[in-house]
Amino acid sequence: MTPQYDAVVVGAGFGGMGAAIELRRLGLDDLLILEREDDLGGTWHANRYPGLAVDIPSPTYSYSFEPNPHWSRLFAPGEELKRYAAHVADKHDLRRFMRFGTVVTGASWRDDHWEVRTADGSVVTARYLVTATGFLSQPKTPDIPGISSFEGQVIHTAAWEPADLTGKRVAIIGTGATAVQLIPQLARSAAALTVYQRTPIWVSPKPDYPIPPAVRKLFARLPFVQRAVRWLGSAILELMMISGVVHYRQLRVANRLAERWCRAHLHRQVRDPALRRKLTPDYSFGCKRPTFSNDYFRTFTQPHVRLETATIERIDASGVVTAEGRTEIDVLVLATGFDLWDTNFPAFEVIGRDGRDLGAWWRQHRFQAYEGVTVPGFPNYLSLNSPYSYSGLSYFTTIECQMTHVRRLFTGMRQRGAEVFEVTQRANDEFLERMRAKVAHNSVFALGQCATAHSYYFNQHGEATLLRPTSTISAQRAAGRFPLGDYEFSPVRRTGTAGGPPGRPAPSTAPARAGTPAS
What was the pLDDT predicted at 162? Predict the structure, then answer.
């Protein structure tokens, strides 16, 4: 049969939009982008908590081919990222492919195409399937006894509900990167704020300054100037990432310097030695994603803010109970992050060739993906949020590496007159062994002190398989030069349809499909 679509892309965040842009450049223009939320933007649409902002310099957090000269600050607030996402969708004419409020429940490979099922019972088919469901998309609710019995308001940071906290007793569980942004905001309005910390976080000063209008005008008129700024920012982030994390064995001193920089920042803002000890991580810098803030540490010195490090035993109807006592609260905020490895790899059931279940296969045979993009046994499948895919500190570095990989893959496939690709088991195994060796021999994840980090970098087997343990330059080079012999290519046998040009699905003569987004 002829599939309904060239490709189905699951997710309308920056990853899904990047994939759609690349596929359209390659001539695949019959796309369907399925998104469970009611609008595009991914995490920048779903997250709305006070203080939301990008945690790396804004010029580096954008597509290199679509610079944004209008950032108001060096670290742009969340609403500007949402507007940037809308701008990209409009400029590249992506909205007409998007179907919102659609939850994908499963996908299966059927001989020469993908069958994608949604929660409303509908089924669509496509030659290619792209999952761009994001790394941080499945909120994690803590397994604390009694949490469902709490009678006050409960808010998860990933499903923020506007609330007037003036005069309220507020508790927040979690001190990760999201909490670092949110806690100072909560302290401004709450009558009392208790912060429950399991794991402290490395925090460095945040060089967050307004970008003057004159500079923004310069960026708009001379885009190469902003590209130079982006390159400089990316180089600095790369140096931090590579020296402190990936090449920990060779450059351990750089890791120590990063720790001292963060300790000095803490010492300047918190004079109480006992409080400083509570806020100081006991794991190596880089085991858990660090972050920037100028007011997080200072917040704990305010008289109505209390840091609690005792383990939570239970939550009852009106408060939180630890071994050291009970705290009455009105509002409970959950900054407990996301469930990557149990529910997001993959985010829904994916069944490949010969009935192979991707989730089960990853858990039985290690989390793995060739160049962080494709998986053996899953033809015509591109998985963007994959093991060993995250390259550098900016998500856009990862996206553009994957776009380059897709470009080379599809170009090579067309040159061979094929429409079906599948990475070979040999190539996948060789890539996996290279990545595992680099993690084991060089990285902070294996050689540093990471046991107490409670980091989402590590899967349930204790393996750090999220970040790619190479430089960004190395990842980009591999994306553009990997051997095409690492893939098997085959044509599609058509029955009852006129064949289109090589590498392009035959044009569909079927009537318009119900639910297809209007152009």
Answer: 84
pLDDT in tens, 73-109: 999 999 999 999 999 999 999 999 999 999 999 999 9
Say what angle helices 472-481 and 223-241 make with each other, to 10 degrees: 110
Handedness of CA 5, 7, 9, 12 (dihedral sign): negative
Q: Please determine, for residue 516, whether its predicted confidence score (pLDDT) is greater than 80.
A: no
CA 8/CA 350 separation, integer angstroms: 13
Closest CA to 387 of 318, 469, 314, 451: 469
| C-alpha to C-alpha distances, 325 to 110, 208, 328, 335, nearest whole angstrom | 58, 39, 10, 22
Give which of 373, 451, 435, 360 is closest to 130, Cα–Cα.
Answer: 373
CA–CA gap between residue 235 and residue 392 (Å, rounded):
10
Beta strands in 232-351 (DSSP E): 291-292, 305-308, 312-315, 319-322, 325-328, 331-334, 349-351
Q: What is the pLDDT of residue 493?
A: 61
| C-alpha to C-alpha distance for 119 and 141, rounded to whole angstroms | 22
Alpha-carbon span 347 to 135, nearest angstrom: 10
pLDDT tens digits along 141-166? 888 999 999 999 999 998 898 889 99
Residue 32: C-alpha distances to residues 112, 303, 339, 382 (Å): 18, 53, 27, 15
The Cβ of residue 480 has, within 10 Å, a number of other Cβ atoms equal to 12
* pTM (two decimals): 0.90
CA atoms within 13 A on the CB side of 84: 24
Q: What contacts 24+ positions apart, CB below 8 Å, involve 228-232?
A: 229/59, 230/59, 230/60, 230/62, 230/64, 230/67
Cα–Cα distance measured from residue 32 to residue 46, given in angstroms and rounded to the nearest whole number: 21
* H or E stretch covering 221: helix 213-221
Q: What is the 3-state secondary structure (H, E, C) of 306-328?
A: EEECCCEEEECCCEEEECCEEEE
What is the token pair recorded at 435? 């990545």
For 465-505, the pLDDT digits (tens) are 999 999 888 999 999 999 999 999 999 765 433 333 333 33
Q: Are 487 and 427 in contact (CB under 8 A)?
A: yes
d(CA 99, CA 58): 28
Contacts of 415 (CB under 8 A, 6+ apart): 503
SS3 387: coil
Angle (CA) 322-327-333 rounded to 5° is: 90
- Please list, in sequence order, all residues whose beta carbon lies within 8 angstroms of the beta carbon of residue 419, skipping any fewer than 6 positions away: 112, 127, 413, 490, 491, 492, 503, 504, 505
Which whole-number Å values give the CA distances from 107 to 28, 145, 349, 482, in the listed order?
20, 35, 6, 28
Q: How far is CA 223 from the centre of its chain?
A: 27
